[in-house]
Amino acid sequence: MTPSLKIFKEEPGFLKLFTLFKQKYRSLGRVSGTVKLDEFSDEELLSVAGFMGVSPENLKDKRKVALADFERELARTPFREYSFVELLQEVLGEIILTKREEEELTLTEEKKFLSSLRAEAPAADWWWDWLAEKPADSRWIWGLYKQDPIRLQEVLLIVSSAVGSLPEKGEFTRLPVFAQKITGNPHSFDPKGVTGKLLLYALYVLSVSRGEWDGRTPQSSEEMNDLLGFHGLLKDDLWSFVTCRGFLAEDEKGLHPAWEGSVSRGSVMNVPVRELLGLERVWPAAGNEVWIVENSSVASALMDEVKDAPVICTHGQLRTAGWLLLDYLVAEGCRLNYSGDLDPEGLLIADRIGMRYQDSVSFWRMGADSYRKSLSQEDITSRIGKLDSLKCPELVSVASALKDEGKAGYQEGLIEDLIRDMRG
After folding, report:
1. Distance (Å, whole) CA 409 – CA 411
2. ∠ CA 351-352-354 to the nearest 5 degrees?
3. Three-state helix/strand/coil letters over 54-91
4. Looking at 96, 123, 144, which one is the last position of a domain?
5. Burial letters for 69-88: b for 16+ Cβ neighbours within 10 Å, e otherwise?
6. Residue 292 in contact with residue 337, Cβ under 8 Å?
7. Which pTM was predicted?
8. Which residues of 303-328 are buried (b: 16+ CB within 10 A; e: fewer)?
9. Would you state the pLDDT for residue 214?
10. How many folded domains does the chain comprise?
11. Across the 424 residues of the chain, what is the mean pLDDT of every consecutive 10-residue run?
């Protein structure tokens, strides 16, 4: 700082005044407006009045200073070589940008950041495009960017590499093993850490872009495990199970005795992911038709009435075990008949199944007529918007009926029809 500018640091009131000037200039984007002097002492007002060429009494009465007036007086002083903003910068020791200039600079830096990511990992453009849009659920990532953009870039590139190295469809890897392979650290993708959270978010974005997720970020541990499992990553192979009856299975040793025993006794099995991963094949003990329902009470009723039918209960949203079992059955050429609740959430589950298995699945008693027959009094108008994300054309008609009626339909009202269908 030149000696002549020391006065503004040594004279009482000027640092306080310049700080107020900075805030006003940044806010308005120009040398305009006024700042209040309510918090200034008499000594500070005396110093400012001397510079402005007015009496202290006059300044006390006004209790404010206009930025333009100060700039005008500046031109009459030995400091006229400085513009208003230059003087503030020299005295306060910082570069001063208007909020608009700061926003423009931030946007420019963010674009450079994303361009660098695109250059390093072009295969993840779908993710960089998503981040560029700044949806509400990505704010925490941009918060990390403000803290340490270099570190964030490193982690994002690790995660993009991980997403590009996911297990093939139908194959599964335990999360620590996958993390060891990608990063050399088995704990890298722990969902509680930043890298693990970013991996989950990337998988969420990937699933939404493919129409495989209902648009809500996973919140609970169960939902996080489901998302990982949907992409072939297992955090825990016991937490997820599927309920079934009437199926046989083979492992490397041949026909599996537990499955064979279940069929011979007509027993129901709750099969966890751990057991499913050890199999090579699963198929219906009788026929080629598989009957899949969302609700356990409905599944139990069907099992009671149609003794030998191959029945699966998903217990709501499909978990990893459910997807695994259906993958096995589709590989055997089975026909999947899926029936779920006729509400927005039920149709979204059906939509995911339909998108994954395409021609191998039929929606069973999920048309507009069945909906009206199963109609309840539960109001669903606040959830109707979820139907806009449906992808399967087979669900368009019933979705339209839901929008018209604004009520939920439930499987329990269709049990007799379901039993009749299964009996043929």
Report:
1. 7
2. 65
3. CCHHHHHHHCEEEHHHHHHHHCCCCCCCCCHHHHHHHH
4. 96
5. ebbebbeeeebeebebbebb
6. yes
7. 0.66
8. beebeebbbbbbbebbbbbbbbbbbb
9. 67
10. 3
11. 72 90 90 90 88 86 90 89 91 88 89 96 94 93 95 97 91 91 94 94 91 76 85 81 97 96 96 91 96 96 95 91 94 97 94 93 96 94 91 94 95 95 92
Residues 249 and 395 in one domain: yes
Strand partners, 88: none
- Name beta bridge partners: 290: 336
Give residues with Cβ within 8 angstroms of 80, minimum separation 6: 74
State the CATH number of the domain containing residue 311.
Answer: 3.40.1360.10
Q: Write the single-letter amino acid at 216.
A: R
pLDDT at residue number 328: 96
What pLDDT does 204 receive? 94
Residue 259 shares a structural domain with residue 407? yes
3-state secondary structure of 348: helix
Residue that terminates a domain, selected from 96, 127, 151: 96
State in Å, rounded, how far the first CA of the chain is from the last one: 93
Is 373 found in the same domain as 312? yes
Instruction: Please indicate, yes or no, whether residues 203 and 298 belong to a single structural domain of this protein.
Output: no
Question: Which residue range is the domain that position 415 belongs to?
Answer: 241-423
Q: Are 360 and 332 in contact (CB under 8 A)?
A: no
Judge if 170 and 204 occupy the same domain. yes
My answer on whether 92 and 105 are in the same domain is no
